[in-house]
Write a structure and sequence with these properties.
single chain; 418 residues; mainly beta; Methylamine Dehydrogenase, Chain H; four-stranded antiparallel sheet; 1 helix; 33 strands; repeat; RCC1/BLIP-II; guanine-nucleotide releasing factor; RCC1-like_dom
């Protein structure tokens, strides 16, 4: 076999390995899960999203999910959960009404326990929204299943009004290195540094469809929304990363500039205005010569962001404590430091909840806790960060967290493995 040739396109972001004889690429990105562990769940489980069978309707504290393999990434959709194994297999559980699980669940109760999605390629990243799931293969191909919805109901997936209960290949001419899902949209970063989007665009979250055409694509119809197309920015911009909130999108350029588009009715994009942004806006509130932004996550009306130093910030709507800035906090139009947390490695949001995973492997939660998804054991809102506890967290390190809003999923590993 000839030696593998490695070309670094972006030093810390995306890497492609090309085998001369196979002419196939293997994509890599800093966001792809590397550390394997076990899965814990908590919160609401009424449609099987906790993966613990038909009888488990709720968990006050983190509880272990039985899976056949070690897991490297967990994602909580609106009412379903997606797990990616260290061998590249995808497991799903929860609500399958519109095909979000990507597998047959006709056998009674089968949606309430983990089941494998049949994909012929090794998967390196997954994302999920309210009713859809997406998977990125190691060769840069994207697969999607389920449905996108707008305010009037289902709009389809890749074709107008056609949903899918099994994975479909997303038509792309470039290898993709990163995928991110909002509630009903999907954004892709390609190896060449281009940004593509598909799904619902009513709030501007696609970054390429004007307000005149967001109602089911206007005269051109739903193809305008469902066929992936490039998000264009003035000048030559090379994108290296993308993150989604429920109805908005953040994209980061090679130079470290942050662009945003979508819903900003509570300033969750960091714009001074509360108008929707239908096309990318360079966000000046993130421009600081000493700050490098490494992670973003958005809920329904708020955003968490993380700088390279490990400081967590929040902005957007303050109700129910989702900003973590205390009971007297008001909505914020620019990143505001969240105190009471050690240096963090990741941030994540559900609709009205927030989480920060620390570099030491703890997880802090705040926001609306009416479904016990904060891990405090109480159905109360938390206005400041609270460290999550529980028997299953003892002697374990938290690697990542994800929340659909009503339930939370954690990826953990035993301390002695570190």
């Amino acid at each position: 076999m000839p030696a593998k040739k490695t070309t670094t396109k972006r030093k810390s972001e995306a890497v492609v390995e090309e085998e001369k004889d196979a002419k196939k690429v293997k994509v890599s990105h800093t966001s792809h899960g590397k550390e394997a562990g076990q899965v814990l769940v908590l919160g609401q489980g009424d449609v099987g999203q906790l993966g613990q069978g038909e009888d488990v309707m709720q968990r006050k504290k983190p509880s272990l999910v039985s899976l056949p393999e070690k897991i490297v990434q967990v994602i909580a959709g609106g009412m379903h959960t997606v797990c990616l194994s260290d061998t590249g297999n995808v497991y799903t559980f929860g609500c399958n009404d519109e095909g979000a699980l990507g597998r047959d669940t006709t056998e009674e109760g089968s949606e309430t326990v983990p089941g494998k999605v049949i994909l012929e390629e090794k998967v390196v990243q997954v994302s999920a929204g309210d009713s859809h799931t997406a998977a990125l293969s190691e060769e840069g191909m994207v697969y999607i299943w389920g449905a996108f919805r707008d305010n009037n109901g289902v709009i389809g997936l890749l074709e107008p009004m056609k949903t899918s209960t099994v994975p479909l290949k997303v038509p792309m001419k470039e290898p993709v290195v990163k995928i991110a899902s909002g509630n009903d949209h999907l954004v892709l970063v390609t190896l060449e540094g281009n940004l593509y989007s598909l799904g619902t665009g009513e709030q501007g979250q696609l970054g390429r469809v004007s307000g005149f055409f967001t109602d089911r694509g206007g005269r051109k119809g739903l193809d305008r929304l469902l066929v992936p197309q490039m998000v264009k920015v003035k000048g030559k911009v090379h994108f290296t990363d993308v993150f989604c909130g429920a109805y908005f999108t953040f994209a980061v350029s090679k130079e470290g500039h942050v662009y945003g588009f979508g819903l900003s009715n509570y300033h969750q994009l960091g714009t001074k205005s509360t108008k929707m942004c239908f096309f990318p806006v360079k966000l000046t509130c993130f421009k600081n010569s000493t700050t490098s932004w490494v992670d973003f996550s958005g809920g329904q009306h708020h955003t968490l962001c993380l700088d390279a130093e490990g400081q967590v910030y929040s902005l957007g709507r303050a109700e129910y404590g989702r900003l973590g800035l205390g009971q007297q906090a008001e909505e914020k139009s620019e990143p505001t430091p969240v105190t009471g947390i050690e240096l963090a490695s990741r941030v994540t949001c559900g609709a009205t909840v927030s989480y920060a995973v620390t570099r030491e492997g703890s997880v802090y939660a705040w926001g609306m806790g009416t479904n016990l998804q904060l891990g405090t054991g109480e159905e109360d809102d938390e206005w400041s960060p609270v460290k999550m506890t529980g028997k299953q967290l003892e002697n374990r390190i938290v690697l990542m967290a994800s929340s659909g809003g009503q339930h939370t999923v954690l990826l953990v590993k035993d301390k002695q493995e570190s």
